[in-house]
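During the no-cost extension, the postdoctoral fellow (Dr. R.K.) reprocessed legacy sequence entries with the updated structure-token encoder. One reprocessed record is reproduced below for audit purposes.
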Amino acid sequence: MALVSLYQGAMIPLLAVAILAAGIRGAPGAEINRDVLKAVVGVKAEISADARTARILGTERIGSGVVIDDSELVLTIGYLILEADGAIVTGPGGKQVAATIVAYDHDSGFGLLRLRGKLDIKPMRLGNSRTLTVGDGVLVASRGGAQPVVAARVVSRRVFTGAWEYMLERAIYTSPPHTYHSGAALIGEDGRLLGVGSLLVNDAAGPGRPLPGNMFVPVEILKPVLGDLLEKGRRSAPARPWIGANTLELAGRLLVTRVSPGGPAAKAGIEGGDLIIGVAGQPVRGQADYYRKVWRSGPAGSSVLLNVLPNNLEEMKIRDIPVRSIDRSEWLRLRRSF
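Re-encoded structure tokens follow.
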């Protein structure tokens, strides 16, 4: 079998060989064309110090993205470009091109950029991530790190919840981990894009099963809303209600770890250390259940009744706190280029 030359000049085996070497299942004879790997580009964004997310995510964000069509559209993980004016994209040979922000989608976590110049890259086409199952062999490719391309396998597909009011129903978890994971490409044995890297995790195989790995956002989420994102920069459906309270799941209840300054929860008097035990009188059983109940309360702008055990009360008494939700984009200090 031939070898595949990466844009950095390093050499890796064909995907099938890499999968076999890692001891995981793959289709014999599968190949990855070198042009496909060139579609993985570097993404660097500068964010103003007064941005809402600057303190948590930083003012300089560096990761990867993937060119996905012939019109120089780049798909990346959204937190790299959130509240940015634009970005610099680095392609093969180190060539850099400025890019404008096309869209940021909080529901999926994806971000889209459009190059303002040509990199002459053959795009990586979107694959069918719905069929990806545990045991499948994949490549994880980034535009950085000591080992830009890593052979991995899918170790679970399950719900992911993030403290920042974020949930994926069928996130993709892989192992071994790729340390340069932000915006990395998850590539199937047919050379198509199956997901975009989001996080480094310690429980890739599942809760209570320690295994380092990565969490990827599956491209199946992008396809139904891509038209909206390209045309309007956001989904056309009503935005979900956003509370502005980060939470940590403890024994099925939700501990508020921080509230967004000036956000709905802060205005309603919710504070760090409070315990959310229900929504509209219905007990919550974990973070996923909590999000589903909040999002069923109506679109952004709806009042969400939270049942809260405050941290600072001497009397152990549950308070019913109505929170007037908003669209999260109203709280962010977006500098739109779309």
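The longest helix spans residues 287-295. The chain is about 10% helix and 35% strand. The remaining legacy entries will be reprocessed before the final report is submitted.
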